[in-house]
Amino acid sequence: MRFLNEYDRESAVDYARTWALYRNPKYKDYDPWGGDCTNYISQCIHAGDIPFDHEGKDIMHQWYWYSDFSRTPTWTSADAFGRYVLNNNKYKTENYGIYAVLADYDELEKGDLVQLIYQGSAYHTMIISEVILDDRNYLLDYLICQHTDDLIDFPLSEKEGERRYIKILGYYK
Questions:
Q1: Which of 12, 89, 113, 126 could form a disulfide with 144 if both were Cys (CB 3.0 to 4.6 A apart)?
Q2: Low-confidence ranges of the chain (pLDDT < 50)
């Protein structure tokens, strides 16, 4: 039996803010090949202690990046990433790596993810960097960080398009 480990949301968001307007030179910049958003988000959640996953049955069920020549599509492609994180674990499974679920808008925390969807496929990924509450603790908005159109602490309410909300519950190792 594996133990569900805690996702380090603060470290993920610290990384997101540090690199939102820049590129970490340890990683390739995928902007010239359609966008860097999911590469950046993968870096953020990896900084939040989510380990590389080599245990899936093939590269669409694994998640890692060592170089442009040693990586999975799930690290850099928004749609492949979304399918991976939402299907790697389900209720009562303990597969190695991330455990994430679809969430409602009002369930998100710092470090959770938002994807923009078109005709059922994800085309963009963002990370929640702050939860904005009013003086009565009611949710007003979220701030997000992203790459491709680089943004730091940008209001989610100003993003257009159909959305998918992803809550990271933790990871198994």
A1: 126
A2: none
